[in-house]
Amino acid sequence: MAAIGRFQRGEEVFYAKVVEGELYRMQGDLFGSPSFERKPTPMKGVRTLVPVTPSKVIAVGLNYADHARETGKSVPREPLFWFKAPSSLLPDGGKIEIPFPEHRTDYEAELAIIIGRRARNVTPSAASRYILGYTAAQDITDRTLQASDGQWGRCKSFDTFTPLGPYIETKLDPQDLTIQLFQNGQLRQNSHTSQMIFNCFQLVSFISTHLTLLPGDVILTGTPAGIGPIQSGDRLEVRIQGLAPLINTVK
To answer: Where is the Fumarylacetoacetase-like C-terminal domain positioned along the sequence (predicted)?
Structure first.
């Protein structure tokens, strides 16, 4: 496999391999040993969906030291994670909706891990075998509510607050990838995944010692420095080396 997407035409939802802009339909189970049709499927009327339907979305905070500094928080001694509502997922091309325009609401570019196998008490050295692939994401955050609540579930779980996709890249080394965010064409975040405090394999291992990860679950691995506010009309583009860009607008 390589880049895999989830698509819809009419009432039909299907997975397909994406090769040079063409779709080759998947046969079988995404989390098993799927095969793909040899002829591309017509693109007319096809729209891109969020690439998975997870049982849970797990977000990791303060996983880049420069981001911890810009927020005035200490670097954690072990991964700091919480849950985002799966209903907050938004596909590539979707519109981020700000529920409280009077609040500060921020972008956060992130690399997302897609779990491929049931994982419990996995070691870091074995973690790669439980990962299906990677995709781009954002962890949109209502900073005003984050400050007032003292916990992060509500401020990050509004509908549309987790853009994800467009595709899962199944052949990718996540250790040192450029991660960038552009706001209206202006570069706002620019870092490398090598700057993570806890790398992808350490995160899967740590989280799996506390709960069971299921196929399709999503782990957001944290954001680097450069976070900032969004407003209606913005165009946000997450670019991560080796992945298709994730592009969303704000209303």
So the answer is: 56-250
- 1 has pLDDT over 70: no
Q: What is the pLDDT of residues 107-147, one digit of tens each?
A: 999 999 999 999 999 999 999 999 999 999 999 999 999 99
What the chain holds in terms of domains, given with CATH numbers, is 3-48 (2.30.30), 57-250 (3.90.850.10)
Cβ neighbours, 10 Å, residue 214: 15
**Tokens 């995404």 map to which residue?**
30
Q: How far apart are CA 219 and CA 224, in angstroms?
A: 16
- Provide the token pair at 217: 């679950």
Q: Which amino acid is at 14?
A: F
Question: Is the separation of the CB atoms in 94 and 160 below 8 Å?
Answer: yes
| CA angle (107, 111, 113) in 5-degree steps | 130
Backbone phi, then psi, for 202, in 5-degree steps? Answer: -65, -35
pLDDT in the model for residue 150: 78
pLDDT tens figures, 142-158? 999 999 987 788 999 99
* d(C-alpha 14, C-alpha 12), whole Å: 7
Return d(Cα 193, Cα 222) in angstroms, integer.
Answer: 10
CA-CA-CA-CA torsion sign (199, 179, 87, 72): positive
Q: What's the pLDDT score for residue 77? A: 92
Report whether 104 contacts 146 (CB < 8 A): no
